[in-house]
TrEMBL record:
This is ABC transporter substrate-binding protein. Coiled coil: none annotated. SUPFAM superfamilies: Periplasmic binding protein-like II. It is found in: Endomembrane system. It comes from Pseudorhizobium endolithicum.
Length: 426
C-alpha cells in the first residue's frame, strides 16, 4: 500500500519534509512485522522522507519472520524490516532457506522485554520472596528456584516463546536465563511464536512466558495475563534489534536507490527520536495498516513508561527506544560478530575464521558511509569492544572483544554444545 501524504510542516517545526511525490519516483516493496521497532521504516513512508529522496515505499505487513525472509529471497520484497541476526544467519547459510542478505542500516536499539505469566511470576515471588524493587537478575534467579522445585515435583518444564530461532529475542532470553543459572535447552522449552500472537498465547496458557518487541509485552501486562521481568536494556543496552535487509545483488544493481533510501531512513530516525513528534508517530503506528494496537500503549512504550502488570506497578526506562542518537543506525560488524558468538554458544553453528568473516560481512557500514558520509560514522571503529562502557554493560559483566571471539566463548560452558539444526519455519 502507498502511504498517505504527511501533514504540512508548521512554521518552526522540525518535523517531516514535504511529501510531494517526484515524477518517476521509484517504488520499493518493503515487508515488515507489526512492531514499534519498525517506526523508522513506517515514518519514512508515512511522513514523506522517502518521497523527498524520489522514492516511494509500498509497505506490506506480514505475519512471521520466516515469511519476510522467504519473500525477500524470492524477490517479492525489495527490502525488509528484519531481525538483526537474520542477515548474519543468511550469510552463514543457516536456516531452512538461507538466501544472501545484507544490512546497510540499523533501525535502532531497544524495544524488547521478557514477560512471564502472572501465575508463574506469583510462584517466583512466593518462592524467592521477591520485592517490588527486584531487578532482571533477581527475577532470573527466582525463576531458577521455581524450576528446581518443579523438577523435584515432576512437573512439566515451562514453555517459553521467542519470535524466531535467529533473533535477538532468542539470544537475549537465553542470556537472561543463563545469567540466572538456568539452562535454556534443558530446564525450559523454547518455541517460536509470531509477535502479534504472544499475548493471546500467554492468555490461553499455551506458553508460560515470552521475549518479544513492543508493544506486545505491555499488551499482555495490561490484560493482566503477564508480568514484565526484564527489558533489553537490562541484558545489553547496545544490542542491535532490527535492521533493513536486502539482497546483495539487488544492492549492487541499485546503488543510487540504496543511498537515497539510507538518507531517507536516517532523516526519519532523527525525526522519530524527537519527543515532540511522539504523538504523531504513535498515531501512525497504531493504524491497523501498521501495528493496530491501542495508541495509548504505543505512546507510553515510545516513552519507556511501562505497566509491568495489571496492578499498577510501573517502570520508566530511559531511552527504551533509540532510533538515531548515539549512532543507533550504524550497522556495526562487531555486533554482527557478537550475534555469531551467540549462535555458536547455543549450538546453531561452530566457530571458524571463515564463519567469522561471513558473519561480519552481513553488516555493511561501507554502504552507510557512502550514503551519509564518513563523518556520519562513529569514531570508535567498526570492531569496537562491546559492553565495556559503564552505561553499556552486559548483565553478567562479560565484555566482548570481536578480535578474541574464541576466547570470549570459553567463559560459557554452553559454548561446548554440539551444533544442531535450528528450525525456523514460524
Amino acid at each position: 500500500m502507498n502511504m498517505t501524504a504527511a501533514m504540512p510542516r508548521a512554521e518552526g517545526e522540525s518535523a517531516a519534509p514535504a511529501t510531494i511525490r517526484p515524477a518517476n519516483a521509484k517504488t520499493l516493496r518493503a515487508g515488515f512485522i507489526p512492531l514499534v521497532d519498525a517506526s523508522v521504516l513506517i515514518a519514512a513512508a508515512e511522513f514523506g522522507f522517502v518521497r523527498k529522496e524520489g522514492l516511494t515505499l509500498d509497505l506490506v505487513r506480514d505475519v512471521s519472520w520466516a515469511n519476510v525472509r522467504d519473500r525477500l529471497a524470492f524477490r517479492q520484497f525489495d527490502i525488509a524490516h528484519m531481525l538483526s541476526p537474520m542477515p548474519v544467519a543468511s550469510m552463514l547459510g543457516l536456516g531452512s532457506n538461507p538466501s544472501p542478505t545484507i544490512a546497510p542500516y540499523s533501525l535502532g536499539r531497544g524495544g524488547n522485554a521478557i514477560t512471564l505469566s502472572a501465575r508463574l511470576f506469583r510462584r517466583m515471588r512466593e518462592t524467592a520472596a521477591l520485592g517490588e524493587e527486584a531487578g532482571a537478575l533477581d527475577h532470573a534467579q527466582a525463576l531458577a528456584l521455581v524450576l528446581a522445585d518443579m523438577r523435584k515435583a515432576g512437573e512439566a518444564k515451562p514453555t517459553l516463546g521467542v519470535t524466531y530461532p535467529f533473533s535477538s529475542h532468542n539470544y537475549e532470553f537465553r542470556y537472561w536465563l543463563a545469567a540466572g543459572g538456568i539452562d535454556p535447552d534443558r530446564d525450559v522449552k523454547l518455541v517460536v511464536v509470531p509477535p502479534p500472537l504472544t499475548s493471546d498465547a500467554l492468555a490461553a496458557g499455551a506458553i508460560d512466558g515470552f521475549c518479544v518487541g513492543a508493544p506486545w509485552n505491555m499488551v499482555a501486562s495490561e490484560r493482566g495475563v503477564g508480568r514484565i521481568v526484564a527489558a533489553k536494556q537490562d541484558i545489553w543496552p547496545s544490542a542491535p534489534e532490527k535492521v533493513i535487509g536486502m539482497r546483495p545483488d539487488w544492492a549492487e544493481a541499485h546503488p543510487e536507490t540504496v543511498a537515497r533510501l539510507i538518507v531517507a531512513l536516517d532523516a526519519a530516525a532523527r525525526w522519530c527520536d524527537r519527543t515532540d513528534n511522539r504523538d504523531r508517530l504513535a498515531e501512525a503506528l497504531a493504524d491497523p495498516r501498521h501495528i493496530g494496537a491501542p495508541v495509548d500503549i504505543i505512546r507510553r512504550v515510545l516513552a519507556g513508561d511501562f505497566s509491568l502488570d495489571a496492578t499498577g506497578n510501573r517502570r520508566v526506562i530511559r531511552n527504551y527506544f533509540r532510533f538515531h542518537d548515539d549512532h543507533a543506525g550504524y550497522p556495526r560488524p562487531s555486533q554482527a560478530l557478537w550475534i555469531y558468538s551467540q549462535m555458536i554458544r547455543w549450538g546453531q553453528t561452530s566457530y571458524s575464521a571463515e564463519g567469522a568473516r561471513a558473519a561480519a560481512s552481513a553488516y555493511r557500514p561501507d554502504l552507510y558511509r557512502a550514503a551519509l558520509g564518513e563523518t556520519a560514522a562513529p569514531g570508535d571503529g567498526d570492531l569496537r569492544i562491546e559492553g565495556s562502557a559503564s552505561e553499556d554493560r552486559f548483565m553478567d559483566g562479560h565484555v566482548f572483544d570481536p578480535r578474541r571471539l574464541e576466547e570470549y566463548l570459553t567463559h560459557f560452558p554452553a559454548a561446548q554444545k554440539t551444533p544442531h539444526s535450528a528450525t525456523d519455519d514460524a
